[in-house]
Design goal:
The complex is a heterodimer of chains A (about 300) and B (about 650). Chain A is built from twelve helices and ten strands. Chain A is of the alpha/beta class and about 300 residues long. The chains are: A alpha/beta (about 300), B alpha/beta (about 650). β10 (about 305-310) of chain A pairs antiparallel with β8 of chain B, so a sheet runs across the interface. Chain B: GO terms for molecular function: ATP binding; metal ion binding; SUMO activating enzyme activity; ubiquitin activating enzyme activity.
C-alpha cells in the first residue's frame, strides 16, 4: 500500500469494533494505511469523505481552491455564513478533522505531486485521463438533484478477494471460502466511446439503465457547456445520445426532463445515497474485498434505483 | 437560516411549503438517526422532535457522526439536536431523552405530528410505534440496517401494510430449555446458559421461581423438575456472595455437582458425548503457575481451561463486590451489558468453562461479545444511504404524493446489478391483528372516578344511538392479554380505570362476540380505544367520557373465508400486545419449542383468549398452547 504501516491499536479496536465485525481486522488495517485524494468539493464530497474519515482511512487529501458561495450553504452543511469566500478544501478539511482525530486530513495546493496516493476521486470534474497515465486508480462521480453517478477505473488489473459460503453436503455446515480474482477496467475514454450492441430497446434495457447514457454525456460535458444555459446542456445531452446510436425512445423524454430540472442543483438526501455508495466502492478498492463496480453506477432518487453496469 | 431555492426547483413550490411547515417526530438518534436528522434539516424540514433513550458510547463514533469523544455518556437525542441546530440556527428542533413507550407519548402526543420516522434498533419499539401511529392516524416511515443491508418503507394505516401485517421471523433464535441446561452442543448454547441462566440467577434481578406452567410430557417431566430445583439452589447460593468461598461454591455446583447429576442420567448420553466434571482445586493450583492476567485477557484468542477458570474467579469476585448486601438478604442487581467488562468477561469465562465440560469448540471473548450482546455490525455508509432514501420519501408523504412512495432496499451483492432497488408498497394484510382495527380515542376526565362499568355502559349506549360504532350488546373488553369484561365476566365493572391499570397511553380492545349475527363488515373489525385525557379545549368543562375519531376510520374489506386445512405455523413465536407472554403454537412433529430464557412476571392469559387471538390472525385447525415466559433483550434489527 502506501506510506504508513500502522498497526491497529487497542483504541482503534474499540472505536472501530462494529465495522471490524463486518469486514475484519485485515481490511481495517488496509484502510488505516491508505491515502485518498478528493478533487472537487460538492455535497457528495462531504458525504463520501465523512464516511471514509469515520471508517478510519489513513490519509485524506482534498483539492478545491474555489471559494465557498452562498448557494453552497444550502446543502453543504459543514459550511456556514462565516465561511463565504474561503477556500472549500481548507474549510472542509478542518471540519472533517473533528470527526476522527486518527485520520490525517489536509487541503493540498496542487495536483502535481500525488506521491503515495492510492486512489483519486474526482467530483463533478473530468480529470480521469491524468490519473490513468500516472498509474493511479481513480473514480469519477457526481450527484445533482435527485440523481448521481459513479464511474470506476481500477486500471488493467485489480486483484481482489471474493468470499463465498459453501455448504458441505454431508455435514450441512457452511464455511467461508475465499477466492482470489482479477478484474480489468476500461479507461474513461474507452468507456464513453464503447459501442453499445444494437438491438431493440427491450434487450438494451436488460443490460443498461437509460440513465447511464445520460450520465456519461454529462460526465463528458466540458466546463463551458456546464456554465451555459439549461438549453445548451439539454442540447448537448441530446447530441451525445444521438452519437451513441441508441434505439429511438430508449432514453425517454420524462427522464430527460427530470434530469434537466435536477442539473445544476444539489439535494442532500440523494448526495447521501451517492456519497455512501461511493465511499463503499472506495472501501472495496482499498481493502481488496469484493469487486468494485465495473464500471458505472447510476442513481435515480425519485424511484430509489441504484444500478451498476459495464460500459 | 439556510435557503431552500434548490429544493423548490427540484420539487416545486407547493411541496417546498409543505415540507417547511410539516411537524416531524424522529424516534432514535443513533446510526440511522444522526444521518436522518442531518438530511431532514438540510432538506427544508423546520419542525423536528427527536426521542432517544440512549447515551453515547465510543463504539458509536464510527458512524454516528454528530457525536465526538467529548460527548461520550451524554444523551444521544440532545447532542444530535444540538448539532443540527448548529448546522441550522433558527430551526425548531427539540430533543427528549426518553423511552418512546412512556405514557406521556400517548395518542394525543403522536397526533400532533404530520409524520413519524423510525430510526430504531429493536422490534419491540417498532411494534409499539407502529401501533400508536395507526391509532393516531399518522403516517410512519420505517427503516432498518444491518451491516451492508438496509431497507425503508412507508406505513399508512388503511392504505399500506403495517409493520405487523406479516410476522417477522424472530431474529434471535430461541433454544429448548433442555439444550441450554442439560445437553448443549454449540458455543451459543453455553453463552446463553452463562448469560441468561448463571449470570441472571447470581447477579440479576431477584426472581421468584421460574413461572413455568409448562405442558410437561412424560419424558421431560422429571428433567424439568430437576432443573427447577437446580435453579432454586443456585439462587440460594447468590446469598453467599459476601463470603470468600462464593466463587468456589458456585463453581462446584454448576461445574461439578450439577454435571454429576446429569451424568447419572445414562439415557441422556447414549448417543452423545458425556460431559466431564471440573475440579476447583486442580484448576486453582494450575492457575497459580500461569502468567495469564485476568485484568486484560486477550480478546481474540480462545482461553485455556486454566485461564477461563482464573477469569471466572476474578470476575465473580468483582461482580459480588459491586452488589450491596444487607442483613435481610435484599441486594441490588446487575443487568447484563455487553460493554460492562466484568459482566462480559464473567459470561465469557463461564461459557468457556462449560464448553470444556461438554467438549464444545471454544470462542474468543471478541466472538462471545457479539453473540451475548446481539451485536449487529454497523457502518456509516449503509446508514447514510438508508437515511437519504427515507427523506426523499418523507417529502413525498408530506406533500401528499403517496403514489410516489415505495419500499426501498440497499444490498451489497456485487454480482447483482442493482444495489439499490425498490418495490411498490404492499396493501394491508386483510387479517392483520394490528391494523385491521378501528382505532378510536377514549377520553376520560378522571380515571380514578370512571369505572370499567361506565365505559361498558357508554359503549352500549353508543351502539344504540350511533350508527358507526357497530358493536352490539354482546361485547368483550380486553387489555393486552387480560379479559376485562365480557357477558360472563363482570367482576371488574365497579373498579375504576385507574385501579385496573388502564392509564393514559394504554389501549383496550372491544370486540363483538356475536359474530354470526353481524351484517356490516365494520362490525367484524374490533375497536381499539386509546385512553387519553380530555381535549385541551375542553379543559374547563371536560366530559366524563367521550369516544371520538369515527371520521378517520378507513374502509375495511370483508374477511376472506377461512381455508379448512390452513397449516399451523411451525414453531412460530407470536407476540401479542403484552410482551410478558409469548404463546407458541406447537407444531405436530413435537419439534423444538421455546426455552425459558428469562424470568418475568406472567399475566394470566387463558387458553381461550390465546386461541381466539390465533384465529384472529388466520390460524385455523388444531393448535395446542405451550406456555413459556419470554422477555426480549435488545433485539436485532431488520430481517433480510
Amino acid at each position: 500500500m502506501s506510506q504508513h504501516n500502522r498497526v491497529i491499536s487497542k483504541e482503534e479496536e474499540a472505536l472501530y469494533d462494529r465495522q471490524i465485525r463486518l469486514w475484519g481486522m485485515e481490511a481495517q488495517s488496509r484502510l488505516r494505511n491508505c491515502s485518498i485524494l478528493f478533487v472537487g468539493v460538492k455535497t457528495v464530497t462531504l458525504e463520501a469523505c465523512k464516511n471514509l474519515v469515520l471508517g478510519g482511512i489513513g490519509r485524506l487529501s482534498i483539492y478545491d481552491p474555489q471559494p465557498i458561495t452562498k448557494l453552497d450553504l444550502e446543502t453543504q452543511y459543514y459550511f456556514n455564513e462565516s465561511h463565504i469566500g474561503q477556500p472549500k478544501d481548507k474549510v472542509l478539511a478542518e471540519k472533517l478533522a473533528v470527526l476522527n482525530p486518527l485520520v490525517d486530513i489536509s487541503a493540498v495546493s496542487s495536483l502535481d505531486d500525488i506521491a503515495g496516493v492510492d486512489l483519486v476521486v474526482s467530483i463533478g470534474r473530468q480529470t480521469m485521463g491524468e490519473w490513468r497515465r500516472k498509474g493511479v486508480k481513480s473514480i469519477l462521480a457526481d450527484a445533482f438533484g435527485l440523481f448521481g453517478y459513479i464511474f470506476v477505473d481500477c486500471l488493467d488489473s485489480h486483484e481482489y478477494i471474493e468470499e463465498g459460503r459453501v455448504k458441505d453436503p454431508k455435514t450441512g455446515e457452511s464455511e467461508v471460502v475465499r477466492s482470489s480474482k482479477v478484474a480489468t477496467y476500461k479507461s474513461f475514454e474507452e468507456s464513453v466511446k464503447a459501442k453499445v450492441a444494437g438491438g431493440n430497446a427491450l434487450r438494451l434495457a436488460r443490460k443498461y439503465s437509460p440513465l447511464v447514457f445520460v450520465c456519461q454525456a454529462l460526465a463528458t460535458m466540458d466546463e463551458r457547456v456546464q456554465a451555459d444555459s439549461k438549453l445548451a446542456v439539454s442540447q448537448f445531452i441530446k447530441d451525445s445520445l444521438e452519437q451513441r446510436e441508441l434505439p429511438q425512445g430508449f432514453v425517454g423524454d420524462e427522464l430527460l426532463e427530470r434530469v434537466q430540472a435536477s442539473w445544476g442543483t444539489e439535494f442532500v438526501p440523494s448526495a447521501a445515497v451517492v456519497g455512501g455508495t461511493l465511499a463503499q466502492e472506495v472501501l472495496k478498492i482499498i481493502t481488496l474485498k469484493d469487486m468494485p463496480a465495473n464500471n458505472w453506477f447510476t442513481y435515480d432518487g425519485l424511484v430509489s434505483e441504484g444500478i451498476a453496469c459495464t460500459l | 437560516m439556510r435557503t431552500t431555492e434548490q429544493l423548490t426547483r427540484i420539487f416545486g413550490q407547493e411541496a417546498a411549503t409543505r415540507v417547511s411547515t410539516a411537524r416531524l417526530l424522529v424516534v432514535g438518534a443513533g446510526g440511522i438517526g444522526c444521518e436522518l436528522l442531518k438530511d431532514l434539516s438540510m432538506s427544508g424540514f423546520q419542525h423536528i422532535e427527536a426521542v432517544d433513550l440512549d447515551t453515547i458510547d465510543l463504539s458509536n463514533l464510527n458512524r454516528q457522526f454528530l457525536f465526538q469523544r467529548r460527548h461520550i455518556k451524554r444523551p444521544k437525542s440532545e447532542v444530535a439536536i444540538q448539532a443540527i441546530r448548529d448546522f441550522n440556527p433558527g430551526i425548531d428542533a427539540h430533543a427528549r431523552q426518553a423511552n418512546i413507550k412512556e405514557p406521556t407519548f400517548d395518542v394525543d402526543w403522536f397526533s400532533q405530528f404530520d409524520l413519524v420516522l423510525n430510526a430504531l434498533d429493536n422490534l419491540e419499539a417498532r411494534r409499539h410505534v407502529n401501533t400508536v401511529c395507526l391509532a393516531a392516524h399518522v403516517p410512519l416511515i420505517e427503516s432498518g440496517t444491518a451491516g451492508y443491508l438496509g431497507q425503508v418503507t412507508v406505513i399508512k394505516g388503511g392504505e399500506t401494510e403495517c409493520f405487523e401485517c406479516h410476522p417477522k421471523p424472530v431474529e434471535r433464535k430461541t433454544f429448548p430449555i433442555c439444550t441450554i441446561r442439560s445437553t448443549p452442543s454449540a458455543p451459543i448454547h453455553c453463552i446463553v446458559w452463562a448469560k441468561n441462566y448463571l449470570f441472571a440467577q447470581l447477579f440479576g434481578e431477584r426472581q421468584d421461581d421460574e413461572d413455568m406452567t409448562a405442558e410437561e410430557d412424560a419424558e421431560n417431566m422429571e428433567e424439568l423438575k430437576q432443573l427447577r430445583e437446580e435453579s432454586t439452589a443456585l439462587a440460594k447460593l447468590a446469598e453467599a456472595m459476601g463470603s470468600p468461598e462464593f466463587a468456589r461454591v458456585v463453581f462446584e455446583k454448576v461445574f461439578s455437582s450439577d454435571i454429576a447429576r446429569l451424568l447419572s442420567m445414562a439415557d441422556m448420553w447414549k448417543h452423545r458425548q458425556p460431559p466431564t466434571q471440573l475440579d476447583y482445586d486442580e484448576l486453582e493450583s494450575a492457575a497459580l503457575d500461569s502468567d495469564f492476567d485476568p485484568m486484560s485477557p486477550g480478546t481474540h484468542s480462545a482461553m485455556s481451561l486454566t485461564d477461563a477458570f482464573a477469569l471466572f474467579k476474578y470476575t465473580a469476585a468483582r461482580l459480588a463486590q459491586r452488589l450491596d448486601s444487607d442483613e435481610q438478604g435484599t441486594r441490588g442487581s446487575i443487568s447484563f451489558d455487553k460493554d460492562d467488562e466484568d459482566a462480559l468477561n464473567f459470561v465469557a469465562a463461564t461459557a468457556s468453562l462449560r464448553s470444556y465440560v461438554f467438549g464444545i469448540d471454544q470462542t474468543s471473548i471478541f466472538e462471545t461479545k457479539a453473540m451475548a450482546g446481539n451485536i449487529i455490525p454497523a457502518i456509516a455508509t449503509t446508514n447514510a444511504v438508508v437515511a437519504g432514501m427515507m427523506v426523499t420519501q418523507a417529502i413525498m408523504v408530506v406533500s401528499e404524493q403517496m403514489s410516489r412512495c415505495h419500499t426501498a432496499y440497499v444490498s451489497y451483492n456485487s454480482k447483482r446489478s442493482r444495489s439499490v432497488l425498490s418495490e411498490p408498497l404492499a396493501l394491508p394484510n386483510p387479517v392483520c391483528a394490528v391494523c385491521r382495527r378501528r382505532y378510536l380515542t377514549l377520553r376520560v376526565a378522571d380515571l380514578s372516578r370512571t369505572t370499567l362499568g361506565d365505559v361498558v355502559d357508554y359503549l352500549h349506549m353508543l351502539a344504540e344511538t350511533e350508527n358507526n360504532l357497530y358493536l352490539g350488546e354482546d361485547i368483550s373488553v380486553v387489555e393486552g392479554s387480560r379479559i376485562l369484561y365480557d357477558l360472563d365476566f363482570e367482576d371488574n365493572m365497579e373498579k375504576s380505570m385507574e385501579e385496573l391499570g388502564l392509564w393514559r397511553g394504554r389501549m383496550i380492545t372491544v370486540a363483538r362476540e356475536d359474530l354470526d349475527d353481524v351484517e356490516s363488515v365494520a362490525g367484524t373489525v374490533p375497536v381499539v380505544l386509546s385512553i387519553a385525557g380530555p381535549r385541551v379545549e375542553d379543559a374547563s368543562q371536560p366530559l366524563d367520557l367521550d369516544i371520538e375519531g369515527f371520521e378517520l376510520i378507513p374502509e375495511f374489506a370483508p374477511l376472506p373465508p377461512p381455508t379448512p386445512d390452513e397449516a399451523v405455523p411451525n414453531g412460530d413465536q407470536l407476540h401479542f400486545a403484552d410482551d410478558d407472554v409469548a404463546v407458541v403454537v406447537d407444531d405436530s412433529d413435537g419439534d423444538e419449542g421455546l426455552a425459558t430464557l428469562h424470568h418475568v412476571k406472567v399475566d394470566n392469559i387463558s387458553d381461550e383468549l390465546a386461541k381466539r387471538k390465533l384465529s384472529d390472525i388466520g390460524v385455523r385447525g388444531e393448535s395446542s398452547i405451550k406456555r413459556r415466559a419470554v422477555a426480549t433483550d435488545d433485539e436485532a434489527t431488520i430481517s433480510e
